[in-house]
Amino acid sequence: MTDRHVRKVSGAQTRGRVFTMLNATVGRFHAAPITIAVLSLALAGAPVHAQIGLYEIARFDLGATSGAANPSFIGSNPAAVAWNGSRLWVAGFNGSATVTTTSLVEITNATQQGVLTAAYSTPFGTISSVGSSRGYTGLSISGSILGASFDSGANTATGIQAFSTTNQKMWDLSASGTTTANIGTTRGMAGPAFDPGFQGNPAQGGGLAWVTQGQGRRFLNDSVSGSSIYTTTANVPPGAQQGMIINTNPTSTTWRDIAFDPTTGDLYTRVNNSVSRANRTGANTVRGPTSNVNGQSDVIVALTATNAIVTNLGFMNAVVSSTFGNFVNNYSGDLLIFNDRTIQGQSPTNVVKFTTTSGSTITPTWTFLNGTAPPSSATGAYDFAWDPGTQTLAVLDYSNRGVSIFSTAVPEPSTWAMAGIAGSALAGQAVWRARRKKRHSAAGSGDAAEPSLTDEQSRTGAPRHG
Question: Residue 78: pLDDT above 50?
Fold first, then answer.
């Protein structure tokens, strides 16, 4: 099937978009400026291929969040991440053998770069008496609203919650009466994600969307008030409609994560370990892209069936290709990122996967700070959050209790040395600076200055099957 979401961008369009995003990125990460003159030479005629380049801007140690005596404690392990290009949140999970509390926390030094120890806000959204293999399972940010899903193993009003970006709770499902089984289970096993609406129109099915075990529908709540828009049973609560059916074939409702195309409203899901897609046909309708069956999601990446928590999915929209020196990102368009939890005890470069929105494999090229990849994950458990405005991707590592920020745009000069991007990039900038200084001089002005999974479960609280 032709991938209708991968858009080729002309050289002039690409350069303009990259320059705009780099200005925002450079300001946020306090990097030395990159000039348009250098970028124009670097990006001219950049090819578009199925290969994406990512370089690491920052790597945060979240170890303090797992210590119950620490003020930043959120649970034994971080399990979910939200990122908007300048602010970063993580959510906690209890993978330990004891009952504890789980919370959310903001990383307050998220705009710094390098290998760092995270600094934290006061934890919020704290839920007590959380049993083993339970806790927060998802985060999503849109504007000034942070959505969160929480899995207690049963129906609960805290299964879906919304917080302001001042870290204050706005609502949970008690606001809409969706806490009882007669209108659908409210166990926060998957999601949430902000539904942009059909063709990106919020009036056409937009809000905070979620899915849950045992239900083959997309639920939806008003992002601000929490009132029900789509539930299981029409007019329960009053005014609500039935959510659209999104089942795969054969049917499975062990949902683990969802994501939306912000332009079309197309829905992508993790069900067991596979990746599925449903094309949006209206505010509350979808159709399988290959089966052409209404109310069906088609599997586009079939992986070994594993019902495991922290099996996640991210939608990376409007990726812009860029090339400079030794750094190359040839990919332009939209893509999916997900983790294959059947690959355990290996580097994230093996566990984290990329495909087009139709499921064709995209090859990643990773460039890490100090030339060293994060440690292997005993569990293969990761979460993802993409910000198109800064072309940056947050990748959370459950087992090693860390989160990294990667960029797909042209590397910033202050990052090159740490990431090992050397040679022609640095030389090119040096030549340009020399020429610029010579021109200014001639004009009379100067130039401005890991172990087994069983061991991991007992030692770090590895996620077990939910």
Answer: yes
